[in-house]
Amino acid sequence: MVGTFWSLVPPIVAIALALITKEVYSSLFVGILIGGAFFAIDAGSGFTGFFTHVFNEGMIKQLSDSWNVGILVFLVVLGTMVALMNRAGGSAAFGEWAKKHIKTKAGAQVATICLGVLIFIDDYFNCLTVGTVMRPITKEYKISHEKLAYLIDATAAPVCIIAPISSWAAAVAGFVSEGENGLALFCKAIPFNFYAFFTIGMMFLLVFMNFEFGPMAKFENSRKSLLDDEEEKKTSSHGTVFDLVFPIASLILLCTLGMIYTGGFFASGEDHKGFVDAFANSDASVGLVLGSFAAMILTIAVYLIRKVLSFKECMSCIPDGFKAMVPAILILTLAWTLKAITDSLDAPKYVAGLVESSAQGFKNFLPAIIFVIAALLAFATGTSWGTFGILIPICIAVFPGAGDPLRIISISACMAGAVCGDHCSPISDTTIMASAGAQCDHVNHVSTQLPYALTVAAISFLTYIIAGFTQELGIVVSGIISWIVGAILLFLALVVAKQKFDK
Questions:
Q1: Contact 215, 448 (CB under 8 A)
Q2: What is the pLDDT, as a whole number, of residue 301?
Q3: Where are the alpha helices (DSSP H) in 155-283?
């Protein structure tokens, strides 16, 4: 079962169960148990080997991983910051301010998209920050949890993968073989990341065409806001817009400083790195923890000085923030465990073999093929970065020429496919955090987002076929032709969907 199609069965079962039963915890756990059973059968380790692999080598090992622990701590701190801003009345005050400056539902959605595009440093930080800032506004204009979660998710990974200064750019650059400038190769691939650009374009088109389709239409047409008002009952009467803007601005600034600190920006002598190099070498997990902790302490100090909250009220927000993040933490833990179990079954090697075999005789179709395989792998494992690590070295090996247009297009297809699969997957950490940021039921978020993501994925697939066949005309001409055709296809697809929805 190791290194064969059976290695993909556990995540496929978990995802299918989640979509069928609408219950994510048990679905993920069933997938973990199936993967553990497959591993034990293949290794002949019996019942004890099964339990050891699932819990000791799976769940406990993932919870003791330093990167994962850092992300969980960051989640708890962000939850505490949200609780502080709500209790201080900052969120409510911002909602009142927004009523005077954002006049329509479309304006609220455009503001959400623009804020998501501006926060391109890291997808985790993007999901939770945008959710925190925009919830009061989306509540005012009766935008559902599900639509807010989609707007957050669609401006997290898709924006980070086309931003040269982001944790994602650093990750991709790190997977490029030694002796080559990974960041430069990443920048060359940006114009061909059709899925990311078309996803952002689709959000604006949906807003300006004023319609939804698929399961999303049901939630949006209900005209109800499902946001919880429990926190508002506890808010301070002294809160102002400053009490939300200051913590968010502190988070952005200090998390950025934390990330470049871990990359060596503040080091002296030969260890010193420039701003871009510091980002490329940063440890996002540690940097986000350092920055968020500093922002939380600074926020508490400011609230105490301004007498918005008492010290006791500030401290009571810590367990409140932790409780708010428990569902996301639990889903992340199970998703990480399932990924570890899938990796132990050598699913990545199996997929890598498929890519290498498909490279023979399908040269012009290869970008489209890589896009699909990257999407399926990221969907099944819930990780974009793991997909980068598997497929980017293969793309470089298949197209060794640095000036080969197919090399750049294929690497971009790999990144776009990984983001697409990550965007669609219920076990993706970014998808989980988007649900947490919007306070949305996770399965509802996945089911409402899927038709939108698959629409863009289908158009991107066709666009990569065009790019593969036009690359002989030159990288610039190929890009222009592909962009024009892809944009027309996206617009026509939404026009058809709108006519069908109106009927």
A1: yes
A2: 95
A3: 157-160, 167-174, 182-189, 194-209, 215-221, 242-262, 275-280
